[in-house]
Design a protein that fits this description.
Low-confidence stretches: 1-37
Strand order of the largest sheet: 3-2-1-24
Mean pLDDT: 83
Shape: globular
Radius of gyration: 19 Å
Strand content: 35-45%
Structural class: mainly beta
Order of helices and strands: HHEEEEEEEEEEEHEEEEEEEEEEEEE
């Protein structure tokens, strides 16, 4: 599977509240840590794809592994051949992950696997007992359904989030720029929940063919889980996906690419007012799923040229391999757990 194929496959307070499946009470979430505080960086979970030749049955494997930031202890956690999108729980002892149209759960060592619900995994809520799931992504002009799933009971609460999606934009504006940013075609799986559990960052998309070159045009929106405060993050660049909140909730990490230039990509961050953030890594062909270290000091990403798993400083001046290039192996979707 190519790195684009992986992206397409992937392209998801109290104890009483958790046990009873009570409604979302966002104010009870603990405050997120600031950047540079005394938080240690624990193991990394990631998706790995590879082929096994001359074996009976399907020869493609897509599964979840974990590794220490030093590159030691690289361990396979799933054997489904279709497991992706690992997300460490805030408590650090469990991993939610994706299988086709299903959200699953396992312990951090890969044991006790079980299906949670249908849909696409977005993120954990801060209490560690609930996950945010979305259903109906990528449908022209239709709002997806956002659901909070309680792990202990299976109870679900549908959220009232209304996005500015309308059908038929390509036909409506076939050869011109869209007049404003109020109309979009669909929401993608590139979504993330803020550390305090109150705000969703989501990518909305439409097609632009005004200059004779057709390409997807995406932008980041934020909205409260209660459905209020929908805002488009201004000062657009070609942000093709995967916004990730900084540990202090003040910046959004994203992958950007100029679609008319081969591998003209970079990893950047921005603040919610659209001003540049602290991250500016000019890494050609980087894959569209970078993430922060738990202490907020470093960036973890996969190189699109070598498919090596790399850690870099926020300015990109210092970087090193966690896992080096291996011919025929493709890595994606890293998620970094805080140390325990």
């Amino acid at each position: 599977m190519t790195r684009r194929g992986i992206a397409a496959m992937v392209a998801t307070m109290t104890v009483a509240a958790v046990l009873t499946g009570a409604p979302v009470h966002l104010a009870e979430a603990a405050a997120p840590p600031g950047e540079g505080v005394a938080v240690t960086n624990g193991p990394i979970a990631y998706t790995k794809s590879w082929r096994v030749l001359h074996t009976p049955g399907p020869d493609e494997r897509v599964d979840i592994f974990k590794v220490r930031p030093t590159g030691e202890g690289n361990t396979r956690l799933t054997y489904f051949r279709d497991a992706t999108r690992p997300k460490w729980a805030p408590t650090g002892n469990r991993i939610a992950f994706q299988r086709p149209a299903e959200v699953w759960l396992m312990r951090g060592d890969g044991s006790d696997k079980r299906k949670l619900t249908g849909g696409y995994l977005v993120d954990w809520l801060p209490d560690g007992g609930r996950v945010l799931v979305v259903r109906g992504l990528g449908v022209d002009g239709q709002d997806p359904t956002w659901v909070v799933h309680t792990v202990a009971t299976g109870a679900e609460e549908e959220l009232d989030i209304d996005l500015p999606l309308v059908p038929g934009l390509v036909e409506k504006y076939p050869d011109e720029d869209y007049p404003d940013y109020s109309e979009w075609s669909y929401a993608s799986g590139d979504a993330a929940l803020s550390p305090d559990g109150e705000t969703l960052a989501v990518m909305l998309w439409r097609w632009d063919s005004s200059d004779g070159y057709s390409y997807p045009f995406g932008s980041i929106f934020t909205v409260g889980l209660d459905g209020t405060g929908l805002v488009r993050v201004p000062k657009y660049t070609y942000a093709w996906g995967s916004p990730r909140w900084s540990p202090n909730g003040q910046q959004l990490l994203y992958w950007a690419e100029e679609p008319r230039g081969y591998c003209a990509s970079s990893i950047r961050s921005l603040r919610l007012d659209g001003s540049p953030g602290a991250v500016d890594i000019q890494k050609r062909c980087a894959q569209p799923d970078p993430t922060w270290s738990p202490d907020g000091r470093k960036i973890l990403f996969v190189s699109g040229r070598s498919n090596s798993l790399q850690i870099a400083s926020k300015d990109g001046e210092r970087n090193r391999n966690v896992l080096p290039e291996v011919t025929g192996v493709y890595r994606a979707e890293p998620d970094w757990r805080a140390g325990r």
